[in-house]
Amino acid sequence: MCISPSATTPPLTQSGEYPNFFRTIAPDDAQARLATDFLVNDLKVKKIAVLHDKGDYGKGFAESVKEFAEAKGVQVALFEGINPGAPDYSAVVNKVGNAKVDAVVWGGYHPEASKLVQQMKEKGINVAFISEDGIKDNTFIEVAGKYAEGVYATGPTDTSANPMANKAIEAHKKEFGSEPGAFFLNAYAAAQALLNAIAKAKSTDYDKIVAALQSEYVDTVLGRITFDKKGDIVGYGNSLFQVQNGKFVVLK
Is 26 exposed, middle or buried (0-12, 13-18, 19+ CB in 10 A)? Predict the structure, then answer.
């Protein structure tokens, strides 16, 4: 049995090929659906550019947005991968400008995103820029500076109001002298869920633990969670954030 805190590829649960797989993080397409719904329902976009870093994570997010957007009648005027680590993205930025899009969607991480938003603004391309949790990091804001303002990002729901989460984080800092990693709480919750399932099942038998994971709710650092029949987490998901006054704030 595997309970992953970080594996977000949709087929891991949705294909049915891995009945022993569970995760305490939402799949990639959940963030893509949230981003697309926001673009369509809130920003009322009609035409978008979708860029990605050619990696499994970034391209997967981008492909899902493209699929969901086109299903909602949005024109994807540009769908293109770029090379991570390149010093300049003016060629693709020019394509974005020429496409006259209402928004740019980025699938990838913050180093490239910071360059893209800066070069877009410098060329007068003032359209919405939205990405996933690959950029939802203070480093993106620090590197992009003023160009980060107004950028949207999807990402795991904020747990800062959860006392159990705060206690776990403080315990980690006291023990190791540093902030925990990005998936610390997801991993912590995975352990809590597994231990609870074993306790409820009163056994380490595989079938009994699976049944407990899929039927028993447990209070964790992520909140009160359980798992569906495919292995995806229930009770914890994603939120939409925007950079406002130099900080990511929750929009919905």
Answer: buried
Quote the pTM value. Answer: 0.81
Residue 107, SS3? Answer: strand
For residue 230, how many other CB atoms are within 10 A of its CB?
17
Domains in the chain, ordered, with CATH? 2-9+160-234 (3.40.50.2300), 29-157 (3.40.50.2300)
Q: Is the pLDDT of residue 28 over 90?
A: no
Q: What is the pLDDT of residues 1-16, one digit of tens each?
A: 999 999 988 899 999 9
Q: Find out whether 33 and 64 touch, Cβ atoms under 8 Å.
A: yes
Q: Are 76 and 52 in contact (CB under 8 A)?
A: no
Residue 77 has phi, psi (to 5 degrees) of -75, -25
**CA dihedral (193, 196, 202, 203) positive or negative:** positive
Scanning the structure block, which residue is given the tokens 């070069």?
A: 119
Contact present, 119 and 144 (Cβ < 8 Å)? no
Least confident of 4-13, 32-41, 239-248: 4-13
